[in-house]
Amino acid sequence: MMFAAVAVVLGMSACGSDDDDKEVALATQVIGTYTGNEIITVMGDESSNGEATYEFAKNSDTSIDMTIPEMGGMGPMSIPKLLVKNITLTKTSNNIVGRLASFSGTVKTADGSEKAYTVSDIVVIFNEKNVVATFLVKYGNMPFDMVTNFTGTKK
User: Fold this and answer.
1) What angle do CA 15, 16, 19 make, to 5 degrees?
2) Is residue 97 packed enough to be buried (19+ CB in 10 Å), middle (13-18) or exposed (0-12)?
3) How many Å apart are CA 100 and CA 84, to the nearest integer?
4) For 26, which of 12, 18, 89, 92 could close a Cys bridge (C-beta 3.0–4.6 Å)?
5) Contact at 8 Å (CB) between 120 and 68?
6) What is the pLDDT tens value at each position of the chain, 155 positions in all?
7) Which residues contact 62 (CB under 8 A, 6 or more apart)?
8) 91: which residues sit within 8 A by CB, 6+ positions away?
9) Any residues with CB less than 8 A from the CB of 47 and at least 6 apart, and which?
10) Which residues, in sequence order, are CB contacts of 9 under 8 Å at separation 6+?
């Protein structure tokens, strides 16, 4: 009888908890605020907005939303914050990569009017506390794309 009790106790203690092996969702691993350098190229002319802050929020376990900061200092050509939803995440080696072909939306400008925008060819690569994001922005009636590159570090 004593042998049976010991066998049951040892058998139960050898069973691990499934909770020990749970992997954290990809989105949870990368969400947060990243600060760094943003470079925008328009018709071959490159300019830097200096320090920029991008925000990444969880959309689902395997997708995120990205907030592109305001592109100011251009007077009436200033662009308010733009939201890009549902960037799909995958894990490759040590990186978590987000991709989205295109996202379109509308945003209110400083004067209260609404403007349409499209963000396309979105690639976001996370590696530990670093991020690199590249994408094209077409805002309002602008006849050209803004090629945007952001490199940042998680705050």
Assistant:
1) 145
2) middle
3) 9
4) 89
5) no
6) 443 433 444 344 445 455 555 788 999 999 999 999 999 998 888 888 779 999 999 999 999 999 999 986 555 668 899 999 999 999 999 999 999 999 999 998 878 889 999 999 999 999 999 999 999 999 998 888 999 999 999 99
7) 25, 26, 27, 88, 89, 90
8) 26, 97
9) 39, 40, 41
10) none
Token readout for 29 is 């691993």
Tokens 């945007």 sit on residue: 148
Look-up of token digits 């499209």? 118
Euclidean distance between CA atoms 57 and 117, whole angstroms:
20
Backbone angles phi, psi at 14, to 5 degrees: -75, -20
Token pair recorded at residue 27: 């989105």
Residue 142 to residue 36: CA distance in whole angstroms: 26
Number of Cβ within 10 Å of residue 79's Cβ equals 21
User: What distance in Å separates the CA atoms of residue 137 and residue 140, rounded to the nearest whole number?
Assistant: 10
Integer Cα distance of 34 and 155 in angstroms: 6
